[in-house]
Amino acid sequence: MTKPYKAGIIGTGSTLPETKLTNLQLEHIVETTDEWIMKRTGIRERCILDKEVPLAKLAADAAAKAIEDAGITAADIDLIIATTVTPDYLTPSLACCVQKEIQAARAAAFDLNAACTGFIYALQVAQEFIKNGTYKHILIVSAEALSRVTDYEDRKTCVLFGDGAGAVVVSAVSQEYGIEASIIGAKGEDGGVLTIPCCYWNDEDLEKRNEGKVQVIWMDGSEVFTFASRIMAESTEQVLEKSGLTPQDIQFVFPHQANIRILQNAAKRLGLSMDKIYSNLEYTGNISSASIPVCLDEAAQKKLLKKGDKLVLVAFGGGLTYGAVTITWSKN
Ligand code: COA
User: Fold this and answer.
1) Using CA atoms, how far apart are residues 34 and 45, in angstroms rounded to an integer?
2) Which ligand 1 atom is the nearest neighbour of the CA of 224?
């Protein structure tokens, strides 16, 4: 019997908006200080998408770069999975808007919402389509404009979030490379600790928010912090075990970029030094599902990744959701 195909990442791309919102600027918006934000989160600045630019434009830009990096054309794409919590429209989906922008005429297209874990969920879905031979080339584009659902009068959340887009092309790769194992999971019963109302809200949702603000992020920061620190280490341990690897076999962990202290806690628990934990949150803040593909593209651009490197990608987020993937890097 022939082995099923293995799925790997054959191209990466990312685009961050040029407009920056620095901690020093935030000092003039809410009662906070650069020192507090740096010490408690590790974030110095975030990128903000201009109001008149649709998110689809940013997403399409990152997608086009990933397709070029993969050495294929948009016409080769069979499926587009877009991950986002801030689509321009509920319909057409972000994936359909990207399809139109990049002219991937043959592609099927849908959105996937697993909040900050969206990219990991999408990798798992893409992997299944590649493994069973249904599709040859799948574009995952993760794009977020969290500034559009952030209350800039709530200092507990507005210092954390930013905008950006990252994309990858997932295709069949030879057996010694590609995705080795993955896990995804959810704890819906704890979903109330991080919410963004969309088409419905109740009195409790209104009470938690500043008056006149509804479709904005509300978060119990310390509950999310505790969940994130634990689940990041546990998911990494689980996916390593599933792939027969130990933390010492790993060249880099690419975690969801939420707070440097969450990454430090998880690294300590896993017995890894911080130089194995890739982080760019100082200059991006938390860009939800876009954070891992943006990091991957940055690391690839900096030539930090070598063919054969073993990587862990791990995320957690609203839902609550979590997931992790081990991958043997297949690009030079
Ligand atoms: N500037 C100054 N002070 C602030 C502040 C800010 N931006 N935000 C909160 N504070 C204050 C609080 O009001 C509180 O003051 P009080 O003691 O007088 O009430 C104090 O700082 C401590 O607040 P606390 O919420 O305990 O701080 P923290 O150390 O837990 O940090 C977060 C807050 C939000 C940075 C942290 O909880 C966090 O990162 N949580 C996870 C968030 C996350 O990852 N979300 C996305 C998941 S995908």
Assistant:
1) 10
2) 41
pLDDT tens digits along 238-267:
999 999 999 999 999 999 999 999 999 999
Closest ligand 1 atom, residue 259 Cα: 39
Our mutation pick for probing the ligand 1 site, out of 35, 113, 222, counting the most ligand atoms within 8 A of Cβ, is 222
What domains are defined for the chain?
6-175 (3.40.47.10), 180-328 (3.40.47.10)
Q: Which two tokens stand for residue 65?
A: 């770069």
Is residue 256 flagged as an active site residue?
Answer: yes
Index of the ligand 1 atom closest to the CA of residue 26: 7
Query: Would you say residue 199 has pLDDT above 90?
Result: yes
The answer to whether 19 and 185 are in contact (CB under 8 A) is no
Q: Please give the average per-residue pLDDT across 220-226, as a whole number.
A: 95
The protein residue with its alpha carbon nearest to ligand 1, atom 12, reads 156
CB of 235 within 6 A of ligand 1: the answer is: no
pLDDT score for 54: 98
